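User: Design a sequence. Structure:
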């Protein structure tokens, strides 16, 4: 290990420690009771906020309490329930087809396998990582959303803009024990301090170690 590696390792440990001390134990923001509900909720969260998803899922899960019932749903009925999340036509098709596939291939239960998750309609790496982390407590990658994309560049943990490349970079520099929580911490930080247009560096508790804040 050279000096640059040691410096980066020290920075990563300090970064994670401060995030944890400031925000406490992270909590998954999407309401759910089981892996099936979580998977549906994450698919619905594309291109919208978690709050918007949490407004529609109680009604959706009341109407369709399991994937067996969702698999038999009329897509037009699902569209009405999830309309406010945006892109509702595609999302309705995805979650109904997802339910049908899980019923047919996995006995109605979301598979605890990353590659199997990627086969489901509407599920990409981001969704699969969230489900593996939060439902099955197994980190096989790092969830990269808009906040993680922005902050990982500001922290100089990556120089890429492509989410897949960013994920690979983060998996190299972050110990696996940090993979699950770092995403939620970056989301919290991105909403409160490190906002997209004008980060509030002066008030941020990381301004003495953050490369972007130090460089101005």
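Assistant: Done.
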């Amino acid at each position: 290990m050279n000096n640059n590696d040691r410096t980066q390792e020290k920075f990563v440990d300090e970064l994670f420690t401060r995030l944890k001390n400031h925000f406490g134990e992270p909590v998954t923001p999407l309401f759910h009771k089981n892996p099936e509900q979580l998977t549906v909720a994450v698919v619905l969260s594309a291109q919208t906020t978690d709050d918007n998803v949490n407004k529609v899922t109680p009604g959706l899960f009341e109407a369709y309490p399991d994937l067996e019932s969702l698999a038999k749903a009329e897509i037009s009925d699902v569209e009405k329930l999830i309309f406010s999340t945006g892109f509702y036509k595609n999302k309705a098709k995805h979650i109904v087809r997802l339910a049908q596939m899980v019923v047919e291939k996995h006995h109605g239960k979301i598979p605890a396998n990353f590659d199997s998750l990627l086969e489901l309609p509407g599920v990409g790496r981001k969704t699969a990582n969230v489900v593996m982390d939060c439902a099955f407590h197994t980190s096989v990658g790092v969830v990269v959303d808009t906040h993680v994309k922005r902050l990982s560049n500001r922290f100089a943990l990556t120089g890429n803009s492509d989410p897949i490349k960013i994920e690979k970079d983060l998996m190299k520099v972050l110990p696996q024990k940090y993979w699950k929580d770092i995403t939620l911490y970056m989301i919290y930080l991105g909403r409160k301090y490190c906002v997209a247009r004008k980060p509030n560096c002066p008030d941020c508790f990381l301004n003495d170690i953050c490369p972007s804040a130090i460089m101005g």
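Residues 134 and 202 are 33 Å apart (CA to CA). The mean pLDDT is 95.
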